[in-house]
Amino acid sequence: MFIVMASPECAPIAKAGGLGDFVHGLCRELASRGNAVELVLPKYDSLRFDRIEDLHKVHSDLWVPFYDGAIHCDVEYGEVDGIKCFFIDAHSEHGFFNRGKIYGDADDPDRFAFFSRAVMELLYKSGKHPDIIHCNDWHTGLMPVLLYEIYAGLGMDRTRVCYSLHNVGHQGWTGPHVLHMNGLDAGRLMAAERLRDPGNPGAVNLMKGGIVFSNFVTTVSPRYAWEIQHTEQGMGLQDVLQVHDHKFGGVLNGIDYDTWSPQRDTHLPVRYGPETLPEKAKSKTALRARTGLAEDFKPLVAVVSRLDRQKGVELIRHGIYYALEQGCQFVLLGSASSPEVNADFQRIKDDTDASPDCHLELGYDEDLAHLIYAGADMILIPSVYEPCGLTQMIAMQYGCVPVARRVGGLADTVFDANYSDRPFEERNGYVFDDFTYAGLESALGRAIGLWQRYPEYFRQLRVNGMRQDHSWNGPAQHYLDIYTHIRT
Asked: How does the average pLDDT of the chain come out, rounded?
């Protein structure tokens, strides 16, 4: 198949979160199976240009309609880890992609609506007729609308759209001007069954447009698919998703084993696997040396996370002190965008800096992240909601046992050592339901108790997690099945 992936992110060149990893991993796996895969991204001024091979201009005369005029764009091509990438370089006083960052400006809906039109115009003007356009999150939600309303009538009538929702907490709320900007009939499209926001009749909801106009909608885990249809986690889109249930499903993300595998990870002092698990202890020693923790016979609990409400900062805070009270060591690597949350964790850091058993690193350090997964015994993931989550999958690869709240993709991948209905060889961690201190303590306390009293059982949990397949192999096949389904 000829597949065009449209996204605001791709790791490692433009990454703000899990979407970047999704695009990188899925594109590589689809291409490895013989599909023609092309990725289209904005040419941000903040791209990691050092990771793009042979970047050069391939189109210099792309004029993208914009209100009553057009904006001139160049298109550049380069490869990122073997992925064929096209970059839209817009020449406009708006500076759409020259902000020094990917997201975070008031005109983000305008920026990415323009990007959506630019991708469609590039495909049309270059005579490309992909079998599938795979769109991602609200940023490309207008592309299925543009395809159906404009470009299908210009000859792109055989192209089908798969649309993936990565986090419905961000839906691209904006005004009808975005439709006028792109030559669309705002009067007709602002109907309740089209793009009108369910909670604000005067607003356009770009994610809703993608859901309504695409041929199939996915999200990043089966549990999250259910949650956003049937609980408040749908953030107002529950009814829309239920109406379109016939073309909606959840597909778990994978992780990139080239990046995240203790058997080939160059960040570690010694590489290891399930058959050589004792070698993991050398990473624990190295982690303690790197973070100033005492060399002692204690379990080491970790957090590697953004520090925001979604990730459960209240329970992370409580988990630090609870683990220390239970005779553990604790390492945290994370950064907060909220000044209040950052100040809160800075206070915890100041409070614990003198402890030989606790280290907080407020920021992000790729080398340290790898060492934490390899050196820690348990990782704490007490999310309020979690569409998929990569942390628990990465941790299990490294023999680090997840202690997680049973939501979203965490519920689909972490199976409780005591209470799961799965056979023992599939049990790989500890889970809890209630977003409370008592809920967290129930799971983390059981994990710590097993480490302290039954080391052989704890070792088996590590091995169970390491032997599970969280590669892109299975998810890519699911997506190919979906593509085949909507083409027929």
From this structure: 97
